[in-house]
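Q: Structure for this?
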Amino acid sequence: MEENRKESLDVLIIGSGPAGLCAAVYAKRANLEALVLEKEYLGTGQITESDQVDNYLGLPEINGFDLGEAFRGHALGMGVAFQDGMADGFEKEADGWSVHVADGRTIRAKTVIYCAGASHRRLGVEGEQELTGKGVSYCAVCDGAFYRGKETAVIGGGDTALGDAMYLSDLCEKVYLIHRRKEFRGSAQTVQQLREKENVEIITEAVPARISGEQTVTALELKDGRTIPVDGAFVAVGMQPQTQYLQGVVDLDANGYIIADETGSTSAPGFFAAGDVRTKALRQVITAVSDGANAAVSAAAYIRSAKQPVDLPDANKTAKKEP
Ligand code: NAP
């Protein structure tokens, strides 16, 4: 057992988005033996989807790809090791975690920091994929400012779509909110606020058929034959946390997010969560890197406490009173 312990890493970081890369930097700074396992070769997560990021403190107007590369370069410069692989099985062992990789390998680590993120659900219509980053966006807070004074459509009927429409209505000349049903899934109060906005037009029972444009988006076409000329289409049809292999491993909320606090601690000892995959109020690059830092510091503290086990009082025994 002791021999196995020596063979295992201190921390296996799953995912190479901003949360994972920041966790890796902090793990190295804490002198931990860390490995980043990434599904996508040389990946940097969702950030590559943003044309321009101008809400990351100190780096206004940076391209999303460049920001991701800067994060990755920082981790590489600190000597962080990367491997390709998709983690698809997790087993708690006495002295850590045994992580199965889809290619058949097993990686052992004293702690896991899970940063696999959440992906935006796609609409699945013609033109969506081709025009992503060229007028199709999945994040109004990230990209909304590029549509100042322009016309946009938000697609969806949940709280994200409603919030996106509110946010864009303060920037855009006109915002169309397109929802496939009559009733909204999101807050009735926000729907009412949107109805009162002069530059918001709500179109219900409308199903998108195609997003059109050559170099950039020019229109949203609906299944009923209507064409809405817009400069941007914001797709807000829900998120999908990448937690399909975590059922029974760690507690998830009703939407599939890992229940974790700001320290990254989860229901499973030595298993930490960081970034968009955990329960949190604001999913942004800046909160993801903060999560990564917190989770790495928590992992270091966990490893330290495992080396020096604290003799915790047993609740079933009668506590001895100090003389
Ligand atoms: P959501 O609640 O799952 O809503 C997704 C919306 O997209 C639904 O209205 C759904 O329509 C629509 N949709 C799904 N697939 C579609 C398709 N193929 N074509 C057209 N429309 C489609 O997702 P969300 O808005 O991202 O919210 C996720 C969770 O976060 C929710 O629990 C939400 O309350 C919460 N949230 C809270 C806040 C807040 O409190 N401020 C802000 C954002 C999110 P149907 O309604 O017809 O199914």
